[in-house]
From TrEMBL:
Protein name per the record: Protein kinase domain-containing protein
One Gene Ontology cellular component annotation held by this UniProt entry: cytoplasm
PANTHER family reported for this sequence: PROTEIN KINASE FAMILY PROTEIN, SERINE-THREONINE PROTEIN KINASE
The Protein kinase domain, residue ranges: 1-101
GO molecular function per UniProt: ATP binding; protein kinase activity
Top-level taxon of the source organism: Eukaryota
Pfam families per UniProt: Pkinase
InterPro entries referenced in this protein's UniProt entry, alphabetically: Kinase-like_dom_sf, Prot_kinase_dom, Ser/Thr_kinase_AS, Ser_Thr_protein_kinase
Amino acid sequence: MAQCRGSLFRLIRRPNNQLDERKRIRMALDVARGMNYLHNCTPVVVHRDLKSPNLLVDKNWVVKVCDFGLSRIKHNTFLSSRSTAGTAEWMAPEVLRNEPS
């Protein structure tokens, strides 16, 4: 396993934050690529708790998606769940209002 600098959450809260705009854009692309990979797997993997504490940054500033404890496999066209999963502070407002997303 690659050595990590820590979670993105911890890194962006540091007072001596080393994340310039170029690095931040590259990191956002890493997250997008990771989620794209999961969503293009067969069957599709839905993370359900994507947030900065669940993004690890390695020594080369590459972001890795982690913590798949709430993830689900999507076998059908639509993923339905009878329970709200994830961290409320990071959820879309329509999910919290129990509206279709």
